[in-house]
Amino acid sequence: MEITTAHGPLRAPCYIPDATRGFVRSVDASDLEAVGIPGLMINAYHLMTRPGIRVVQRLGGLHAFAGWSGPIVTDSGGFQVFSLIRENPKHGQIRDHEVIFRPPDGRDKLVLTPEKVVQTQFRLGADVMVALDDCTGPEAPPDEQRRAVDRTVAWAKRAREEWQRQLAQRRSEGPPPILVAPVQGGNDAGLRRECAQALLDAGLTAFGFGGWPLDEEGALQLEMFALLHELLPATAPLFALGVGKPEHLVAITALGRPAVFDCSLPTRDARHHRLYSFRHALPDGPLTAGPGFYEKLYILDKKHATADEPISPSCDALCCRRYGRGYLHHLFRCEDPLALRLASLHNLRFYSQLCEHLREHGASPG
Ligand SMILES: [Zn+2]
């Protein structure tokens, strides 16, 4: 599936890294291009707090600011704000009309409305914008899930109206930014279904997996993804917000719905010395769902100190093209930032290779 944006296509399934504050830690935009990363997920809320939307605008908008010429998806920040407020009510209030947020770092309070969140993302110049939604965890009680669905639908309608207003005012050429409405409902199939249907009825055309993608035991909510796949038109882009592990990408693709995945896992794992590789050469056909197709190598293990082979023979990124495990082990031991760059590029390339394979061959449920 090809999602057309003003800065080029996103071909799903694909993985885009979380560049939460406008950058992916320890790698730059040309590094990302070199390892086949097609787009970035940036958090509008984080940019609001630093450096501020006005600063990004003065620096030419998000693409110029971040030196990135490909598609940029901006998240509303609802997920972060709601988690903090639900953890500790002194951080703010969630009302039907708006969300008042008092940041933990003592900065001025922030008022978020569906309209304001869309305006902010237009000002940033996002290619894909996520509407403000009411995020719940899988453990939230049924009445809270219910309220979250009602609010999410009401807010998506308001976001869509604002999106249309902005489009009419700006009259820019080229493909308009895509408005993504997250579908809420937690682990309740009835609520998820109701939420998706209400969003479709309200004219929304692109969707996100809202809330927490894992259940209380930490397993992927695959049934909820299957449900969205059934309900949404085949042409509707799906953003699997915050997903996930390599086996999650395979499992969701095996449902038959190519999604856009974003998460911070590969770069976070790289910083924690965990490097991915395919266990065997990739098959000349669909990958089978399950974690068996890859492994994680812990680069600080003593055995790697004297190993001269690359981390993975199938990796064509800088790390493995030019350096061996022993050198990377040494860089990590010396705590040189180069270790983080090479390891991050390695894991990002693993994800982009995985998605290349999924696009070409698909996946089977196993
Ligand atoms: Zn590599």
How much of the sequence lies in strands comes to 15-25%
Query: What is the total domain count?
Result: 2
What is the CATH C-level name of the largest domain? Answer: Alpha Beta
Bound molecules: zinc ion
Radius of gyration, in angstroms, nearest whole number: 21 Å
- From the N-terminal CA to the C-terminal CA, the straight-line distance is 23 Å
Strand order of the largest sheet: 3-13-12-11-10-9-5-4
Structural description of this entry:
The chain has 366 residues and is of the alpha/beta class. It has two domains: 2-263, TIM Barrel; 271-364, no CATH class. The chain is built from 14 helices and 17 strands. The protein has helices spanning 29-34, 44-49, 53-58, 62-66, 78-87, 114-124, 142-170, 189-201, 222-231, 246-254, 265-271, 318-322, 325-333, 337-361; strands at 2-3, 10-11, 14-17, 40-43, 72-75, 92-94, 99-101, 110-112, 128-130, 178-183, 206-209, 238-241, 259-263, 274-278, 287-288, 294-298, 363-364. The chain has an eight-stranded parallel β-sheet with strand order 3-13-12-11-10-9-5-4. Strands 6-7-8 form a three-stranded antiparallel β-sheet. Helix 7 (142-170) links the parallel strand 9 and strand 10. Helix 8 packs parallel to helix 9 and helix 11 (265-271) packs antiparallel against helix 14. The longest helix has 29 residues, at 142-170. Zinc ion binds next to helix 12 and helix 14. Zinc ion (ZN) binds at residues 311-312, 315, 317, 319-320, 346, 349.
